[in-house]
Amino acid sequence: MRTPPPPPPGRPRIGIPVRLSNSRDADPRVGEANELFAYIVDLVRDGGGEPVLLTFDSDGGSDGGSDGGSDHGGSDGGGLAEQLKELDGVVLPGGGDLDPRLYGEEPGAACYDVNVAQDALDVAVARGTIDAGLPLLGICRGHQLLNVLYGGTLVQDMADGPVTHHEPAAGDAAVGGGEGGGAGAWVWHDVDIIPGSKVGRLYASQGTAHGLTVRIASGHHQAVARVADGLIVTAVAGDGTVEALEDPARWVASVQWHPEVLELPAEERVAPFRAFVDACYYRQNGSMSYQENIG
């Protein structure tokens, strides 16, 4: 009689740094970013992971709550370091614009919701994750942050071109670095992803014999300018905008688009997060995916 396999270990623990700007901010894009944060927390859980909310001054937790925002920044990185020791991977979510001083520029008029505390938290989480050798996935702002962290630069405000990357916000102002101009206010365009890349594996179920082209939800007014040394481009839009990056030496990857938006079919929303959870599990166990183990 065949011995049954051992029960699977607990869900992979996926850290997500909280959003520090409060949804009551007068700029509606802040509230929209916090809604997207909550979607990511849910999708990590639906994909088989245990979401752990990361801050400088708390012990984390798995409850996404009703608002990703917070009124505290904190400066104690010690608690964060302890939290990272208990994780299997990290997702860097979207949000407002990075402070351009992080890449050697002065902020332009188009920058919005520049939050020094948020930058400090996200940078600390990203550096700690990379140093620990944990898988790291950046989304929109997280994509831009990884490029800056590795030494690259950003376009502070994209000029109009052949591919539309965002809808205008109220009053014809440009939408923010990570988020659309309102519920469902996304523009949709194709991106070509390199099959077999880390991002390609997140979207492998949508590939064909002719390559991997994915229709994505876009809502950003900033983009990668100079690609950092140590990162390679693994997806582009039709106008050449850098849509995905990865570190070939470790599991670090990012996408400029929003895989979490509600307008996508449910399976398309959860599939990249499920694949990322699998990558985190496989790094720890080295034999099979989490989904295979619980199957």
What do these coordinates show?
The protein is globular. Strands 2-1-3-4-11-10-9-6-7 form a nine-stranded mixed beta sheet, with helices on both faces. The chain has a two-stranded antiparallel sheet with strand order 5-8. Helix 2 (77-85) runs parallel beside helix 3 (116-132). Helices cover 28% and strands 18% of the residues. Strand 10 (242-247) and strand 11 (252-255) form a beta hairpin. The protein has helices at residues 28-46, 77-85, 116-132, 141-149, 198-202, 266-285, 290-294; strands at residues 13-17, 50-54, 89-92, 136-139, 154-155, 187-193, 212-218, 223-224, 232-237, 242-247, 252-255. By secondary structure, the protein is an alpha/beta fold. Residues 59-66, 70-77 and 170-178 have low confidence and may be disordered. The two termini are 20 Å apart.
